[in-house]
Amino acid sequence: MFIGLLNIVLALTYRELVWFRRFLADYVVSWVFTAFISLSIILIPMSISDVGVVISRFSSLVGVELDLGTALLVSVLLSSIVPVVAVCVNDVAHTIFAEFKFIDVGPLILESTTLKYYLLANAFVRSSLMTLGITAYLLPVLTYVLSSYGILVFLIVELSLQISAMILGLYTTLVASLITFYTNVSRPWVIANLLPPLILSGSGIYIPTYVVPLILRVFAYVTPVPYVSKVLQVVATCLSLPEVLTFLTIATILLTSYLLVTTVFSTRLEFRVRR
Amino acid sequence: MSTVLVRDLKKFYEVREGFRKRRVVEALRGISFSVGRGEIHAMLGPNGAGKTTTIKILATLLLPDGGEAYVAGFDVVKQADEVRRRVGISLDVSKGFYPSLSGYENLVFYGLLKGFSISYSRRRAKELLELVGLEGMKASYNPYFTYSLGMRAKLSIAKALFSDPEVLLLDEPTLGLDVESARMIRKLITELAKDGKTVLITGHNMYEIEEVAQSVTIINNGVVVASGTPEQLKLKFGLLYKVSILLRDVGKDFIGVVKSSLPLEGMSVEDLGGSLRITMYVRSRREELVQTLLNLLERSNTKVLDISIKEPTLEDVYVGLVGGGVYRVT
C-alpha cells in the first residue's frame, strides 16, 4: 500500500513541477495581484480617509491595537489565504472534473493504480504544492519586512497554510468526486466555483464573523479557513503559542475526520467507477 | 495455454433516461474466446457491439457482471494488480492524456504512476517516442493539445508499450493515421507478436485486420457470432472464389472437364471472337482450386491469355454476418 501511494505521490509531484514551470507566469500574476490587494485594503482607504480611523477599524477586526506596519503585515498574511482557498478548491476540483469527465485521463489512472490512492494523494500533493507555489512571494516579503525573524514567521505561516491546504484538498476531493461520479452535471465547475466565496465569506478574513449569516459561518467552520485566519492574525501581531496549539488541535481533528471519510468514500467509489 | 481467456463474459449498464427512469443495456451477453501466446487476435463488430467493453474488462478498467476473464493466467477481478502489470492498453487514441503536458511528460508521468523510477521512466519515454516516430516531431516539448490525431495515436501506442507488457490491448490503434504511419504501426504489431507478445486488437479496417490478425472473433449485440482464423471464417460461411480465365484455342470437351473437376456454384462462357472468357464461382480451398485449374489447363493444350482468382475477403464475411445473410462474391 505504502509503495503504491509513494509512486502516485512521485508521479503527481512530477506533474505539478512540470505545470509550475509551464504556468509560472500565472503564478507571478497571482503573486502581484494578491500583494496589490493586501496593500490596497489599508492604503486605499487611507488615501481617501483619516489614517487613524482606518487603522482603528482594522484593529477592531483583529481585536488588537495595531500600528500601520503591523496592520499591513496582518493584511498581507490574511490575503495569502484567499489564493490558497482558490487553488485548493478550484484546482483540485477541476483536475478531477477534467480527468474523469472531459479530457478522459481516467483510464490512464485506472489502468495504472487504484482510484482510492490516487484521489487521496491528489488531495494532498496538488493542494500542498500549489499552496507552496501560490504563497512563495511571502518569503521575500516577510524577510524584507521582518529581516531574519521573517523567515521564522514564513515557516509558521507556511506550515499553517499547508495543513489547511491538505484539509481543503480532502474536502474538495469529496465534493468534486460526488459531483463527478454521482451526478450528470454537465458544467461541474459552476458548483465548484461557488465554494471559495462561501468559505471565505464566513471565515472572518476581512469581515468580522458576527456580521456574517449563520449558514455562511457553518459553511466556513467545517473547513480550516476560519482557524488559520485567526492563527495568521496572531502570528502578525504577537506570536501566541496557545492560539497556534488551538489551531493545530482543530486542524488535526478536521484532517483526521476528512481523511477517514475520504478513504471510506473513495473505496466505495473505486468499485462504482469500475462498475 | 491461452494468454487471454474469456469465458461467458457478461456486462450490463444502467442508463439513466430522464430523472428517475433507468434502462439496462446488455453490452456483453456471454462472450467467450481465447488468445494464445504470441498471437494477434482481432475483435470485429459494429459500433456498440461490445468490443471496447471487452477490452476495458481485460484491462481491469471495468468489472464484469458475469463470467470469467484471465490475462496471463490472472483473474481480471481477483488479481487485478497482477493483470495491470502485464497489460498495455491503448483505448480511444484521440484523447487520454493531459493536454498541457507534452507527450514525453505524459509518458514519464504514466511511468511513475505505474511504479517505475524517474530515470527509467525518462529513458523509456525517449525510447518509445523514437520507436513510434514522435521524437523527430519535438514531442518532448510541445504540449499534447497541439498534436494531430496521428501523433496522438502514436503516443497512445507508446503508452501501451511502456511497461513492455506481455499482452497488448489495442482499441482501433490506427484510427486517424496516415497510410505510412498505419503501415508502420501494423509492422510494429506484427513484430511485437513475433517477440512473443499477445495482441488483442479491434478495428473497422478489414484490410488491416486481415493483414495482421491470425484469429478473429466477430461480435454483434454483445454475442460472438463467429470466430476462427480468417481462412476458416471464409470457408465456414461458404464464400466463393470468382475465377476468370481468358483462353484461345479451346478444345471441344474443355468446358465439360472443368464442370466435372471443380465444385462449381455457377459458370458463364463468353465468346469474344477468337477467344473465350470463362467465369466460374467455385467453392473450394484456394490451394486446391489453383492446383486443379493448373492441371486442367496443362492437359487441355489451350492457350491461356489471362487468369484471375478473386478471393472472398474478411470484409465479405463480416458484412455477411453483421449485415444479415451471407454475402457472396459475384
Largest interface: A-B, 26 and 30 residues
Determine the N-to-C terminus distance of chain A.
Answer: 22 Å
What is the oligomer described by this structure?
heterodimer
Number of domains of chain A: 1
Characterization of this structure:
The complex is a heterodimer of chains A (275) and B (330). Chain A has one domain (2-274). Chain A has 275 residues and is mainly α. Chain A has 13 helices and no strands. In chain A, helix 2 (24-48) runs antiparallel to helix 4 (68-79), helix 4 (68-79) packs antiparallel against helix 12 and helix 7 runs antiparallel to helix 9. With 330 residues, chain B is α/β, with parallel strands linked by helices. Chain B has 2 domains: 2-229, 3-Layer(aba) Sandwich (Rossmann fold); 240-311, Alpha-Beta Plaits, CATH 3.30.70.260. In chain B, 35% of the residues lie in helices and 31% in strands. Chain B contains 11 helices and 14 strands. Chain B has a 6-stranded mixed β-sheet with strand order 6-7-8-3-9-10, with helices on both faces. A 4-stranded antiparallel β-sheet of chain B has the order 2-1-4-5. In chain B, a hairpin with a 3-residue loop joins strand 12 (264-271) and strand 13. Chain B is elongated and about 80 Å long. Chain B starts with a strand and ends in an 8-residue tail after the last helix. Mean pLDDT of chain B is 86; it is low at 325-330. Chains A and B meet through helix 1 and helix 6 of A and helix 3 of B.
